[in-house]
Specification:
Elements lengths: L3 H12 L20 H8 L4 H12 L4 H5 L6 E2 L4 E4 L8 E4 L2 H23 L11 H4 L19 E2 L6 E2 L5 H15 L7 H14 L4 H8 L4 H20 L1
């Protein structure tokens, strides 16, 4: 029977001793950023719900899944702000709600509410609640404020509970919509949903917002992450000056 020292000796025989080995680091990549004109061209080829969701990625700096998981109660039209719950790192934050997105979103929610009321009449209307809220407030999932802002067009079986209810829309629908819009607009950049978030940060810095404010809107912890956008902006300015 091998002892610990025997196994170590055998391992050393085949692969040698691994001293002072450093973990491989992912190389730093500069974010892809669209110009304001490219953003306008992109949105010209987005319509309906995809346009609304893309508007929050660009106008509020949301991550893709943060947008998908938005609840009705997270939109504050009075103060024009969006509350992001349980974002990256499990943190909550508040960001801006674009003025030009407020009215379209209110009209969108009117349709979603009508759909929710029909679901209730049909004996459904419940939605998944995070953490232990479902046990603590068993009827809260049927309330309007807990419904997803961007619900799925169809009911489905929740694999966690076996309950048939309406989940949020599939993120792939927006990803595909952005991909098609980029191609249709003739933008020669590998832009994705996350590109709109990068563009949000860069354009705010371009408009004179300080790094600290942009960092808080993005939900970033390390200051260096937001400074990456500042470096991109500086390079763009230098390129523009030389051109």
């Amino acid at each position: 029977m091998y002892t610990c020292s025997d196994r170590e000796a055998t391992r050393a025989l085949y692969i040698g001793w691994l001293h002072q080995v450093e973990r491989a680091k992912r190389p730093a990549r500069l974010p892809i950023v669209l110009t304001k004109d490219e953003v306008r061209r992109l949105f010209a080829h987005l319509h309906g719900t995809n346009r609304l969701m893309a508007g929050l990625l660009y106008g509020s700096g949301l991550r893709l899944m943060e947008c998908m998981r938005l609840r009705v109660k997270d939109l504050d039209f009075g103060y024009l702000r969006v509350t992001v719950r349980d974002g990256k790192g499990g943190k909550d934050r508040i960001t801006m709600l674009p003025v030009n997105a407020a009215k379209p979103l209110e009209r969108h929610l009117q349709k979603v509410k009508a759909q929710h009321e029909q679901d209730l009449e049909d004996g459904f209307g419940g939605v998944y609640l995070p953490d232990a809220l479902e046990q603590k407030y068993p009827n809260a999932g049927r309330e309007w404020m807990w419904q997803y802002v961007f619900p799925s067009p169809r009911l489905s079986i929740d694999p966690r509970t076996g309950i048939r209810r309406r989940h949020h829309v599939e993120e792939s629908s927006l990803q595909l919509g952005i991909k098609r819009a980029v191609r249709a607009s003739g933008i020669q950049k590998p832009a994705t949903c996350h590109t709109l978030r990068h563009s949000f940060a860069t354009h705010l810095l371009e408009n004179g917002y300080d790094i600290r404010t942009v960092q808080e809107l993005l939900g970033h912890s390390p200051r260096e992450i937001t400074e990456t956008h500042a470096k991109v902006l500086l390079r763009l300015c230098l390129a523009f000056a030389k051109g």
